[in-house]
Specification:
Elements lengths: L2 H33 L8 H5 L2 H20 L11 H24 L7 H35 L5 E6 L3 H12 L6 E7 L14 E2 L4 H8 L3 E4 L6 H11 L6 E3 L1 H8 L13 E2 L7 H21 L1 H14 L5 E7 L5 E7 L23 H8 L7 H7 L3 E3 L6 H10 L12 E3 L1 H5 L6 H16 L3 H17 L4
Length: 472
């Protein structure tokens, strides 16, 4: 079991036990103040063994664990923000209190409103305090261990130049550790090794196996001496490792012309492997994707059947068209669509479609206009390849051309690609690389401002596009 999973398990077990204890404690107080006064139960043992209390003792902790998970509390088991931990625990306790009140305690209301409100606050206080104390205790102990160099995470610095050595030495000599344990360097520029290297040097080609063998948890990328283009090529090679990748704010600014700054325990670094979206938003977005996509597939099954029959009868070839695309953390996956072109559409190599493309079939033109060809991608969402809203995935053939002119395209891989996107809504299908780069600007804007309200706005405009037939 990894350090992360072990720490995560500690939080999960403590949360489950403390929530059980909090609910039991509240029921003891509840008996003393309400049930006992109303003479419904002769003693506390009878009350605690009643069906309602036993069901609550089972359901409340389970519901609480679901809320804790959706809050994103377990996503990052180490280096937690203690302020954010307080806020998440406070918010979770509030949601749980309101849910318990309407599901289980509404019959406890009395004519004395002040007393009823007092009991509500007692429930909240117990849920918050009993859960928060074990959490903050574990978090504080972990922070102290990290700062005192007793707990660290194997890290590779990508680069072997003087600046890479200097940065690594600075991290290792800090009085308060940031948790980085530099175990070696990665040669990103052959022939430019510093003679001051005091740790092993590893190659890029077998880096995946190296990271597994050394249990590497972080990568720190030093800017390439050949400039931003070479650095971006390097980042693209590292994305599939699915590890946190830290760069300097200056490099991030060059990539995006943005001004987002974040800090990791005092050293200015930005993790470009993930978006700034909150962990709770990430979890809720993924859960809603699965639920909505599954329900949609069932609801539109007659439409899927009708479109499939129309595609089959209109031209020779398969009903479903599968094509490899590059997705989250630059991992390839097969995207599914209703076939809208002839089977020999790309015999001469990859080619983007255009407005009056002769390769598009008669039925294909109709289903592309109303975006019906995209419907099978709800299965990609269920599988986890895609999200409902996110940047459109492209083929590696075009990604290489885009990155050569727009290095910031690499940031697209921070999130799952989507069935619809801000770029598709504002720009639509692209017929050349210039169009893809233009559309990309909207997708980068989406990543920097992703939220449920933005997703709902994009979905609304997507429906408008479908209903008005503005697709091509």
């Amino acid at each position: 079991m990894t350090k992360e999973n072990r720490q995560r398990l500690i939080y999960i077990v403590l949360d489950f036990l403390s929530t059980n204890m909090a609910w039991l404690l509240f029921n003891v107080i509840r008996f003393a103040t309400i049930a006992g006064r109303q003479h419904q139960f002769p003693d506390i043992n009878t009350f605690l063994q009643s069906d309602q209390v036993i069901i609550g003792q089972i359901l409340v902790p389970l519901v609480a664990m679901a809320i804790y998970y959706l809050s994103g509390y377990y996503n990052t088991p180490f280096l937690k923000s203690r302020f954010q931990e307080f806020v998440l625990t406070f918010t979770s306790a509030t949601i749980l209190t309101v849910g318990i009140f309407f599901a289980m305690l509404i019959n406890d209301l009395t004519d004395d409103r002040a007393f009823s409100y007092k009991m509500l606050f007692v429930l909240f206080g117990i849920l918050f305090v009993v859960v928060y104390i074990p959490r903050i205790t574990v978090t504080q102990i972990t922070h102290v261990k990290i700062q005192r160099h007793k707990l660290s995470f194997n890290t590779l610095i990508v680069g072997t130049s003087y600046s890479a050595i200097e940065f690594g030495n600075r991290l290792m000599k800090m009085r308060r550790s940031m948790g980085f344990n530099i175990v070696g360097y990665v040669e990103a520029d052959e022939g430019r090794r510093s003679p001051q290297l005091d740790k092993p040097v590893y190659g890029l080609d077998d880096l995946s196996q190296t990271c597994k063998d050394l249990n590497v948890r972080n990568l720190i990328i030093i800017p390439h001496r050949h400039g931003i283009k070479a650095t971006i090529d390097l980042i693209n090679r590292l994305f599939p490792l699915d590890l946190p990748m830290f760069i300097s704010p200056d490099l991030y600014h060059l990539m995006t012309s943005g001004a987002r700054i974040s800090n990791v325990a005092g050293e200015p670094l930005i993790d470009i492997s993930r978006t700034e979206m909150s962990q709770s938003t990430l979890n809720i977005k993924r859960l809603s994707d699965i639920v909505i996509a599954a329900i949609t597939l069932v609801a539109i099954s007659p439409l899927l059947l009708a479109v499939g029959i129309a595609v089959k009868l209109s031209s020779k070839g398969p009903i479903i068209y599968s094509q490899e695309r590059i997705g989250f953390h630059k991992k390839p996956f097969n995207i599914y669509k209703f076939r809208s072109m002839t089977t020999d559409a790309e015999t001469s190599g990859p080619a983007l479609s255009s407005l009056n493309d002769p390769r598009i079939t008669r039925v294909g033109r109709f289903i592309r206009k109303y975006r019906l060809d995209e419907l099978p991608q709800f299965w990609n969402v269920v599988k986890g390849d895609m999200s409902i809203v996110g940047p459109r995935p492209e083929r590696d053939y075009y990604i290489k051309q885009i990155v050569a002119r727009a290095p910031y395209y690499s940031l697209i891989h921070q999130v799952r690609p989507g069935i619809t996107s801000w770029g598709m809504v504002k720009y639509g299908y692209a017929s050349d690389i210039d169009g893809m780069i233009e559309r990309l600007r909207y997708d980068i804007l989406y990543i920097e401002n992703v939220s449920f309200s933005v997703d709902m706005k994009i979905i609304f405009y997507t429906f408008r596009t479908i209903l008005t037939g503005q697709g091509i």
